[in-house]
Amino acid sequence: MVSTTRGTLSRAAAEKAEGKKPVTEEGSGSRKSGSAVMKSKDYAEIFDQMSFVGTRYPDLTAMAELGISQDCHYLFEEMQLARLMMNPLPAYKKETIEFLSTLRVNFYEPDEIVPEDGRETEPGTPQAELQAFWAMIGVGEYMSSTAKSTHIRNPVLRYVHKALAHTIYARRDVTGVTEKELFFLNEGMKKVIHTLPDGTEMVGDRSGNSVATYLLKSFLSYREYALSLNKVHKASSGQLSCGGLITPILMNCGITLEKPVDPQAINIQYLRKSTYLRGQPISGRHNYQFAYRQFNFGLASFFLPNQPLTYITVGENIDFEPPIDTILEQGQEEEEYDYPGAADVEESSGDEENLMDYKTGEFHFKNHEIKGRKSAAKTALESINTDITIFYMILLYNYYVFKRFLQDSLPLEVVFLYLWDLKSL
Fold this sequence. Notes:
Protein name: Arabidopsis retrotransposon Orf1 C-terminal domain-containing protein
Organism: Microthlaspi erraticum
Region (Disordered): 1-36
Number of helices: 19
Largest sheet: 3 strands, mixed
Pfam families: ATHILA (PF03078)
Domain Arabidopsis retrotransposon Orf1 C-terminal: 37-111, 118-370
């Protein structure tokens, strides 16, 4: 281990920093698990025991009914996830399992066929910024073990969090807010909030990475998920719900797809089940529940749509502390909600209860500063629109590898390249 100002770095990370090796994400052919060696077929067997469900996507009708559609679209665009979020696709169990159980990713610099330096694959948002951002939108100090979706007060940000937890970080239990999801919310808001309430400057991710990097790392993390379940003999309690995100890769590679599992939606019915909304609409307005500061962060209710009070371009709305009369107009008595901790009650995920939460490894956020010449990858990324489309185009570049894998059961290696000229694809 190598000591740093933030603690320690792994030997692999240290060697990368010293220019000895590229960044290669774990999850290729095999891995040791205790005394056994895990191979692709072993992971596939574990995945096959899990329940397989369609990916749950944002719902256009629900967002429009709640008056949050415009703001949600803005955040998806800023996070470079708009096409992924607004293109619901069916999932395919067999192909998804084959993809996840064999995926290997090498993160190379664009001008290096044989890389010397590798590239940074972790987010570069300062931890202090994330903490200050959470203090603005949530309740208390951020800790991944205790932060809940119900703590996010603004209905736009809370809906977008649900979208992240059901897609790029798809899992069964979506009640918590992981650091990865907080990172993306921060990215979406960095052009709206220039200075956080405590004086922290909001600059966002300094790593220069494409969003595709984080999506690939999310795919790779499913092996850790499979291993954690298998070690406690609970593979059947697991769930795979990321298949819809893999479908575009399969389609672009010309793979024949059969037995689709339809996508699901973060619709009004689901939001009522997940406690985002309560009861039936009244005169076309929905009863939104949130942690209200004047009730000591107990749960209060607020009618949606109410765009003047939910627009995220207005600073007070981000903090989301609507006037008390907008709360009491619903016939509520303040004392009904005036007790601490109500917002800490576990929010129903809207899905079947899970016996073991899906917990992938958390990102370790650290300050990231580029010294000397600007990296080729960063220069390239500044000159192009780093949309998630790049991810699918690059995988298409290696389509023949994937075809061979599916047809001949050969190992799949996806080499992720940041290219100077996308026309070369």
